User: Fold this.
Amino acid sequence: MITNLDSFMDSFYEEEVKAKQLNPQALKGKLQQLLGQFSFPEMNKPIKVEVKEFQTYRRERFLIPSFMGLMIPLYVLTPNRVQTKYASVIALHGHGYGCKEIVGLREDGSQDLELSGIHRHFAVELVNKGLKVFAPD
Assistant:
């Protein structure tokens, strides 16, 4: 019985490569051919647009360059406990008005001091439990 998923996938991959008599470089080349070429933005560094300090955490807002000029908003919530590494989580919002609601903001961007809305600021609750939270919009 295999209980380690990584070992299982490694074994499965090796068996498939042998069965099809393909080498890893050929597989990589075929994958690149199937995916095609991507154009990446020249400016590929995130832009920090806001930093707000709270008693237990720091909230930063970034714009992440994507393709064709698209900028993806992202909030990063970091516990105030100084560490070199944090357990991290990606917090995805559902319906509502986007990631603002999960990081404790109202739709207009003002601070929401009540636990209103369907998400009840769950990203803030996660950062207060010691996790570093990434909340893309």
